[in-house]
UniProtKB/TrEMBL annotation:
It comes from Devosia ureilytica. This is YciI family protein. Belongs to the YciI family. Residues 13-78 form the YCII-related domain.
Length: 95
C-alpha cells in the first residue's frame, strides 16, 4: 500500500490548464481499482492519494503520467506502508 503526496512545485500557474487532465487521471486510477481515496493536503495545499494493488515501479509510472506531475505543478513523494492490521472495512488493503 502506498500514500502518494503531491506537493506544490514551481509551476502553480499551470494548474488551471492541466486540471481537467489531472481529474481524469485520478478517476482512471479509481476505475482501475488502484486509488482507494484522495484528497487535499491542509493547510499547505497539494494532495494525497492512497494506492494499492500494484508494485512501486508500476505506481511510479502511473504517477509520472499525472498531468500535474509531468507539467511541474506538483512533485510527487511516494511513501510505502506495509499494513499489518486493519479495521474490517479496510481489510482489502492487506494484500
Amino acid at each position: 500500500m502506498f500514500v502518494v503526496l503531491l506537493k506544490p512545485s514551481g509551476q502553480p500557474g499551470r494548474a488551471g490548464d492541466l486540471l481537467a487532465g489531472h481529474k481524469a487521471w485520478l478517476e482512471k486510477g479509481l476505475a482501475d481499482g488502484v486509488f482507494a481515496l484522495w484528497g487535499s493536503l491542509k493547510p499547505e495545499g497539494g494532495g494525497a492519494i492512497m494506492a494499492h494493488g500494484l508494485d512501486r515501479a508500476a505506481l511510479e509510472k502511473r504517477v509520472a503520467a499525472d498531468p500535474f506531475v509531468s507539467g511541474g505543478v506538483v512533485r510527487a513523494e511516494i511513501v510505502e506502508i506495509a499494513p499489518a492490521r486493519a479495521e474490517s472495512r479496510l481489510e482489502f488493503l492487506l494484500d
